[in-house]
Structure formats: structure tokens, C-alpha cells
Amino acid sequence: MRLSGNGVVATREAFLEWLSRGRTFVTETVARRFRLPFPSVPTPKAVLLPQHEALYRFFWARRTWNVHPLPPEGTPILLLAAPCEVKAVTDVLDAVFLGNAPQDPYYATRRKNLILGALGCTFFEATCFCTRVGGHPLSREGADFFALPLSSGVYFEGEGVSGRPLASSEKEELEALVADLEKTAPPPFPEKTPEYLYEAFGCDIWEDIAWGCLNCGACTFLCPTCFCFDLALEGRLRGAMIRTWDSCMFPKFTLHASSHNPRSHPMQRVRQRILHKFSYHPLRKGVFGCVGCGRCVALCPVNWDIREAVERVVSCAL
Amino acid sequence: MTLHDAARKLLEEHKVQGVLGYRKGSLPFRTRPYLFRDPCEIEELVFNPFCGLNLARYLLFLPQGIERVAIVAKGCDGRACVALVRENRLRRENLLILGVPCPGMVDTRKLAEWEGLKEHEVTLRGGEIVIRGVAYPLASFLDASCRRCRYRSPLVYDILVEGGEVPSLPQEDTLRELRSLPEEKRWEFFRKELSRCIRCYACRNACPMCYCKECFAESHKPSFLHPSPTLRDNFVFHIGRAMHLAGRCVECGACERACPLGIPIATLFLAVSDTVREHFAFEAGVDVAAPAPFVTYREDDPNAFIR
Amino acid sequence: MPCEGIYTPCLLPIAEIVEETRDIKTFRIPRPEHFVYRPGQFAEIFVPGVGEAPFSISSSPTEGTFLEFSIKRIGSVTQALHRLNPGDTVGLRGPYGNGFPVEELLGKHLLFVGGGIGLAPLRSLINYVLSPEHRLSFGDVFILYGARTPQDLVFRWELERWRKREDLTLCLTVDEGNASWEGRVGLVPNVLREVFSFPCTGWVSIVCGPPIMIKFTIKALRELGFAPGDILTTLEMKMKCGLGKCGRCNIGPYYVCQDGPVFSYETLLEMPEEY
Asked: Do the Cβ atoms of B27 and A298 come within 8 Å?
């Protein structure tokens, strides 16, 4: 769903005043592009699936072990994110934690308490590729409200902010923006990309593609869709079961207790990351597991670029 | 000989099976590591102030079939090579050090202030960096590790490339300010910075000297720290690594550049290097034959800390 | 103790511990009422202060109020488990996984091929099939079980019980015999070729054991004429949540903890070989 054009134009002050009524956060991407007076979080994932979360406490008392579940917590939060980051929540995180029975109560509670707003993008950064994976910089799909800065104020779709209807000059500005984005949009990956990649599993270019990757977790930890986590105990006689982010880039991720490791080689782990996002998740859920936000490209210490990797594998399979 | 000629010649004459160097990245001001195997590819080899990665890191992860490799080495890459040879990770005869004088590496985060900056809009001129026609002192754009660098060109090399312009920059004591603070303030600094760490291990994985098969940070038996990034565990990780790198850190700052959150993590390692320099009169990666400071007794150790 | 939330284990006392071999013990714990499972499923066992790990259930749901887990001492959790005594507390959550497709097996002849500790999940299905209420729903039962040495055979009392039954064939083999061993000596796949001499129409084979045994057993089964769809096996993968969320057991479009651990060889053939 693109912006309908049925929204209103509010003043920047009115919009900010409305945002300031609750606990409002912005994602780093939004913070970088627009100077907004709100604290930032790396991605919506950091709110919905925090990196450190205690699930239950355990302790030894009165000569016996005790376990106390820690109830899910969630305080109402408003988060302003880029459209791709909204898509990461609705397409991937929701699908895994809510759409896959049983629902995750911790995620569900936080999600219920989250008002997720999309702030439309007016240009593509060098790292952006949302249009390659089915997204759009002006998409309001899945968001509770949609906002877009115009020269004369803030265009707003949703409930809460009142304003006046679009003036004809503003309509033209919107149309010009849409046309400009259309022109500069990176073209989508081929429709059968998930199938191509699946077939290319045994292709001999993987070694070459993976070379250079440091196998650190920067990309996966800062990715808005990477949801893999670890459950690790903290404490001996008293402590808690902690849920924390994990990464398929780490060798211990799949290491069996028997010391067998199905993905012991760095190349296999790079391949897993690409295939999980661009093949396995789409084959399972019908949408890419990547939203094209480009954070992994921007933050990679060695400029390892996932776009090039997918292109190369696709061309290998073709 | 220029860098390109030297690299091409080495491949053409089969002196090496590969040249570890940098290639233009997919984003402005970014380079990426590349193993050049074909002399025809050499035209893509670049060396500029955006080659902050320490290539020696890749020497221990070469693809099969590469026996002898050349490495494009700035001062700190060269030091890492020497340190790795000294620790018996590499055989010197399998390594050809292609030394390049280093102008210092620009901290790309400092360029973020100029929106939409293009590569051609930035040039280096002596000790200055010219951005959109305006000259600024280069030193203010360099990483902390580069501002204090003592060895811009490799000390040990097989070929030293000519023509590289090495501006004479003053060696700055980048830690002086932090050192002058009272203990609580220094503690506060590290507490604030390390609480941001997400433990993605980019710093460790970018480090040429961190080559343990199993890092203590990820060991299960015994388990030293919890995988989640609490401040306590972050301290254990970074201090543990600093201890492990004491007398081994080559002060390249690759860890800090790798950090996706921009934590000035090299501060810790540079401080430890200073301590080792002061008390043991030792610098890692400077001399292949120098004995390791912690396992040797010397009559002339400054060892003021023992007395 | 009530079990709240999907990640919290319920604490249960260990009722009985049977020493099967020098490094395998069977733990019997009371089955909580809500814990309704099918053969081939697994559960997460939590050792307070140590950690949590997934184990297949080796008892059959037809057996009543107890659950059994046969566990080999390998990692930190299993080591801690082996140090426990009856009466000590462990945590349990589950059951997880798809289990064996029991409905699809109705009316079939069943060939069970197990190696080492791999008999544990098979035992759940075998005892399910052999239970009075289900025995007539299945055809012939053939069990081939192998271990390294006679001392490494698990469930010895159970093997005796099966041997006495007339409605099944039990064949035991070891890689290395000893003076008192009267059974066969030989690797499971080789013995399989010798002892299974019937036409394989109407048979389904269920294989579980070490990866290398599974690989060669499947080869032997294919030679005997089994179609890929008629060979079932269980995959082992590192798991944490058991709920298809934590992501680490992902192979291809599957999460082994939810879509598995039981897969047909037909499905395995389409999967990336990363297990």
C-alpha cells in the first residue's frame, strides 16, 4: 500500500507536539536523516526483541530448586521508523514470533504496546535497496501511521494529527517526489531469486563470494530482520535464563555438543546468512527475509556488500 | 617502482600466487580487501587514506593453493606481519612485504557531516585534506591510532614502493587527555563507551593478532562470560582481550575502525601498548628477533613497577 | 509447579535412573498432565544452574505416567545430568517437533534400524506399535539394532522383552564382539543386507543412529528397493528454543525443531546438505 494522497498536511510543530505526547523513539536511520528531538534505537528489533532479556529466574532455596517465570513487559511506545524498518517488523519478526504457533508472549506484549509509524523516505542512500526486495520508500504498509516531510509541513496519513487537505502545489510536490523515486529506484531482484539461490547452494562461487568477510556479527546484530537468538543461563545457584541475540556468523551457532559442526567453515556461514534471507525465508513465508535497509552494507567493517553477493549467486544459477 | 608495477610484476613472474591488497568498495570512501591473483586485475588495486583495515588479518585465512603471498603493507600491517612471523603463525619466506608509506587513515565517520560528499570532492595535499575546495589540517581527520603513529612505513619489507607521499605529521599523544583525568572520570569514560558494545566481535575479528582457534569469549568449557552484552561481561571481554594483546598489539586501530558503533575501543589497546613500551621497552612487530616481553628476563628492564 | 510461558520449564523430580552403558543413562521422570506427546518428539531438559538441552523421548505415550530420556554423556548439560540422583530436580518443557507420522504408518510393515543411542527415539515408536491397543493396526515389525560392543547396547532389559515376543523379529549386531557374545558381528548396513531378505513392498524403514550409519544404511535400503519416501530418519541439529524461533536449527526452508526432527529421505534429498 503506497500513500493514498488522502492524508492531511500538518505543521512540523503540530506533528512534533503530537509525537511528544507519549514515549517516543526514532530509529537511527530516521535520526540520521531528520533532526528530531527524540532518543534513537538501532532498529525496531532492539525494542521488540531486546538484546538482553530475562525469561525466568531460578534459585536454590529451602533445599529445593525454584523457577519463577518473568512476565512479559511492555510499556506503550511510539516508534518512528523508515518504511523498510516497518516492513522488517511486519514481514519477518511478526511472522516468526506471532505467525508461527505458539506465539512468543514477550514479543507479543511488546508488539501490542508499540505504535509503529513510517516516515517516508525522499531519496535513496547509496546503501538503500528496499525496491530490490519488494519494498518502497513511500510504503505505509503495516504502519500505524505514515508521515512525510514536505517543504510546507508534514504530510500525515493516520489518526491523531489534524491538518488541512493537500494544496495543489503540495500534490505536485508529492507527484514529483514519486516520479523522482521511480526514476532512481534500484530494480527488483528477479522474481525467482529464492529458487535460483536454493539451486545455487552447491555452486562453487561461494568460497569466492565469502572471501573477505570477517565473520563478525555486526551485520546480523544491526539487521532489522535477523531474529536468531540464544538462550543462555546466567548464574549457578541463583540466576536467570537470558535471551540474547545470536548470529549465524559465529562458529558456535551450530556447534553440537558432540563437537560436530554442520557449518564449521566461514563460507558456509556466509552462505547461510544469504540463503536464509533470500531463499529459505521467502520459500517458507513468501516474502524476502531482507528489507533492503542497507545497514549491513553501511556498517560492514570490510564493505562486504550483500547486494553484490545475491547478484553474483543469481547470475551463477541462471 | 610504483605499487601497481611491483604487484603486477610479482604475479607475472610467479613470485607469489596472490597479492593481498585493497580494491575500491561499493560505497564512496570505502575500500575492501581483495586477493589479486591475476596480473590483469592489478589495475583495480588501490591505496589511499581509506584503507584502514589491517590486511595481515587475512594472512592466516588464505584460500587453498596460495603458498607465497605478497601483502600491501602500511606501517601497521607490516608490524602485524612481523608479529605474526615472530609468533610462528607465518613463515617469513612465504611472505613478501610490499611496503607502502602511509599518509594516515581518514576516519570516514568524520566525513559524514558533508552530506552527499563524492569521492572526487576530497583530495589530499601535503598535511592537508581538501574537501569541496576547503583545506583542513589532515591530522584532525585521522584516527587516534594514526595521529600517534610512530612507524608510517613498514620497518621490515621486501619492496618499498616509491612515490607515496607521506606528510610529516607530528606524533600526537592521543591518550594524554584521558590520562590526565582522575580515576573516576576515566572509569566513567570506559563505562559509558563499553556499555554501548553489542559484542558483535567485529573488533576481535578485524584484529590481525586475534587468531585463537577458540576465543575465551566464546568458550563454553569453561565459560568465562555470558553471551549477552551486559556491562560486566563487556568489561570482561575487552579487558580480557587487552590483556591477551599486551605486548602483541601492533597499534593499528583496525579494531576501532571495524566497530559498527564507533566505540573508541583502540584507546584501551593503545594504553596497554604504552604501558608495555614504558615498562618493558618493547614494541610488538618491530623486530622479528626480539623476545616476547612477558616471557623474558632482562637485566636492563626498566621494570620500575617491580621496585 | 505450574508451567507458565513458553520458555519456562516445569520442575520435576527424577524418579529413577537406569545405567544403560558406561556413558548412557536413562532418566525416568513423572509426566505432567499437560505433556501429551507422540513417538519421535523431543523435549528440552533444564538442569538448574547448568543449562538446557534437547533430548528425544525414549518412552512411548502408551506407557502411562512416566517419561523416559536416554542420555549420553557428551557436553556440559549431559555431564551435569549424569551427576544427578533420583529425587533431584530437573526442568522440562515440550513436547516439541513433528514426531513420527504414525497415521501414515498404519497398516505398514515396519523395519526399524538403530545404532547406538539412536535406538532411543525408535524405542518410543516401537513400544507404541507393540502396545496392545495399537499392535493390530500395524503389520510385521523387524528391528535391527547395532552398537560398537555388547557393552554399548542400550535398553538391554527391553531387548530381552522384545526378544520374547513372537510378533516381531529382533536382530542385534555389534561391531566388535566378545567371548560371551552370541549375536551377529558386523556393521549395521552390512547386516541389514544379510538379514532383510523380503520384498520391500508394504514396508517402511525408520532409521536412527550416528550420521555415518544413517548414510550407509540409507544406501543399503535403497539397494534393497526402498523408495526414498519409505525411509524415515531423524536429524540432529543444534537447538535452543524448540519452537521454530531461535533460528539455529534452520536447514533450507525447514526448522528442524518444528518441521522435524523426523524427515523422510525424500525430503532430505531436496535439502541443502548441512546437517
From this structure: yes
